[in-house]
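does this look right to u?? decanoyl-CoA version
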Amino acid sequence: MLRSCAARLRTLGAPRWLPEGWRAPGSEPRAAQRSFSSEEVFHKDYAVPNPSWNKDLRLLFDQFTKKCEDGSWKRLSSYKRGCALRVKDFQTHFLDPKHMKEEQTSKAQLFTRSFDEGLGFEYVMFYSDVEKRMVCLFQGGPHLEGAPGFLHGGAIATIVDTTTGTCAVITGGVVMTANLNINYKRPVPLCSVVVINCQLDKVEGRKIFISCSVQSVDEKTLYSEATSLFVKLEPKSDIKSC
Ligand SMILES: CCCCCCCCCC(=O)SCCNC(=O)CCNC(=O)[C@H](O)C(C)(C)COP(=O)(O)OP(=O)(O)OC[C@H]1O[C@@H](n2cnc3c(N)ncnc32)[C@H](O)[C@@H]1OP(=O)(O)O
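got this back:
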């Protein structure tokens, strides 16, 4: 029988899609190199090649996997139930915990991992702690169509938010997107692969500024540019109710 989301997350501990060894600033260290129970195995890592991945995506995946060999880059695992934050952390910071009803959260899935294989968001992220840089290799499937033959702008915004957001979480822990600005320069062909390069620009108090570009694999086409502002949440006792 499936256990509740909260119970599963309590078991799982730290967010599993983050680089090994990562921990939220100020939080206790995550348990190192735990053995996996059968329950954890149930949760499949989607940030690995599957039959829907085209040649470009596989090639780039292999290139970045090679960069991981010396430890300068890390591949981030990605799960359908890959909540960005531990429930405990989130409840500490969330504005109004009454919105986190267990019967709803138990059905929750990460938006970008809610499509059948190959139809939606196929992606993998790699992070360099040295360079404070995140790269997302993304293939947008046929169910993300906007203008005929091209990706929906909302789908591009989603993968940009997810990539920059992941970078912000690694930098600042419990954060939310406060602002996302995207310039769409060229339409992205459906089912093509793009490379999203994002970098940490600056941190000012609770504010984390991240920018990114969305380019073709050969880097000849700049599809979009974006800037994001993430705000580190404060513990709820310090936050005005909304
Ligand atoms: C696998 C996992 C993937 C992980 C990545 C997931 C990525 C997806 C992330 C999301 O999509 S989050 C969902 C979309 N975002 C939201 O729903 C957030 C809604 N907004 C809020 O909850 C609050 O406005 C927010 C938490 C962002 C800020 O509220 P606070 O009360 O904590 O902060 P406050 O308003 O005091 O502002 C703090 C600072 O940020 C600044 N600020 C806040 N919002 C801003 C804004 N929109 N533009 C510019 N500055 C802003 C504000 O001026 C101030 O600057 P100073 O410190 O210099 O005074």
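The first strand starts at residue 74 and ends at 76. idk if thats expected tbh
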